[in-house]
Amino acid sequence: MKKIFVLILTILTTMMFAACGNDTEGSSSNSDSSTQMQKEAEQPAPVPTKSDTKILVAYFSRPGENYQVGYITKGNTHIVADMIAEATGADMFEIKTVKPYPEAYQECTDIAKQEQMDNARPEIAGKVEDMSKYDTIFLGYPIWWSDMPMAVYTFLESYDFSGKTIIPFCTSAGDYMTGKEVHIPEFAKGATMRDGIGIFGKECQDNPDKVRETVTNWLKNLGF
Ligand SMILES: Cc1cc2nc3c(=O)[nH]c(=O)nc-3n(C[C@H](O)[C@H](O)[C@H](O)COP(=O)(O)O)c2cc1C
After folding, report:
1. C or N terminus of the chain, fewer CB within 10 Å?
2. Residue 207 Cα, ligand 1 centroid: separation in angstroms?
């Protein structure tokens, strides 16, 4: 009797261990694969290398004396442009006029106003080396008199944008995007456009970490 009892006990104990063993195995492989999946989900999308990028960040920005920020050595839009290029691995092109704008704020606003009234197309220094290789162009500019600086129109009229997507971003003293950006495809022939973002210019100088967070979230929503 005692022997039978010991035998039953042994069988039961063996079965229990076997069950536990399977469980442990199962849960460990589940947790291994879920950890793996979690790790994969946490991985950022691979940033393209410089040689194969199809993204261009083209921006206009003016250092010097500016509204709310005093004298700055790097323009607000330039700061945002760098953030976008860093996050996406994009190439960069600065939309710079042959004739530079004055560093003095008031003088600059007067010239900008006149150019706007004249519907001017200020000449741009340099060219994008090979526009055909890009399919996405982030277009950055400061708001000047509720619009884009006229040199940005020169830029848009200088290339064939067929099949390309333009994504605008701007900085301002509070106007954010003014609605003028919806006309971009009328000047950039062939381009389609996606939703842009307007950033408070002063924040780029005072709180770049916060701006970076905003820009990163915006890019993520766009799928970058
Ligand atoms: C000529 C000129 C006109 C401007 N007009 C406006 C405007 O209409 N609305 C606005 O919110 N900010 C305006 N600003 C402020 C700029 O948009 C803002 O300071 C911007 O962040 C400057 O960007 P940047 O440093 O990249 O040039 C103007 C600034 C300048 C120099």
Report:
1. N
2. 18
Nearest of 110, 104, 83, 87 to residue 207 by alpha carbon? 83
CATH architecture type of domain 53-222: 3-Layer(aba) Sandwich (3.40)
CA of 147 to the centre of ligand 1 (A): 9
120, 162, 219 from 223: Cα distances, Å: 36, 21, 6
How many Cβ atoms from other residues are within 10 Å of residue 173's Cβ? Answer: 15
Q: How far is the CA of 142 from the centre of ligand 1 (A)?
A: 5
The rounded Å distance from CA 19 to ligand 1 centre is: 71
Q: What is the pLDDT along the chain (224 residues), one digit of tens a residue?
A: 555 554 555 555 445 444 444 443 333 334 454 455 555 556 655 555 555 789 999 999 999 999 888 999 999 999 999 999 999 999 999 999 999 999 999 999 999 999 999 999 999 999 999 999 999 999 999 999 999 999 999 999 999 999 999 999 999 999 889 999 999 999 999 999 999 999 999 999 999 999 999 999 999 999 99
Domain boundaries, the chain: 1-43, 53-222
How far is residue 47's CA from residue 40's CA, in Å, rounded to a whole number? 15
Residues contacting ligand 1 via CB (< 6 Å) = 61-62, 66-67, 75-78, 105, 108-109, 112, 142-146, 171-175, 201
